[in-house]
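re the bet — no i am not wrong, look at it urself. input seq straight from the record:
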Amino acid sequence: MTISDIEMKLIEGGLYDLADEAEMKRLWLFCSYQQLWFSPQEIREKCKRGEPFSKQNWSLRDPNELLEEIDEEIKEMKTRWDTVLERMKTSYFASSSHKGESE
């Protein structure tokens, strides 16, 4: 049995065992240094394309955590949207009434 290039890159980078473990536990790999999330399959594809990765700064995490982060960002953006929209309405009406006074 021979080791494929992708397996060799995973072994060299130290992610082979981590990718296997992630796959078995249905987890993803998370890089705390760069805030990156990858499925085990994505890590294998990146290694296949020659992108270097080492095991340092990587851990296994539930991808639902990523969805929760995104959901929180969406809520924050909605709040920001509503705030700006309200400011625009207030600004528009304030400038409209001001124009009426000066005419």
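see?? Residues 67 and 73 are 10 Å apart (CA to CA). told u. also The mean pLDDT is 83. so pay up
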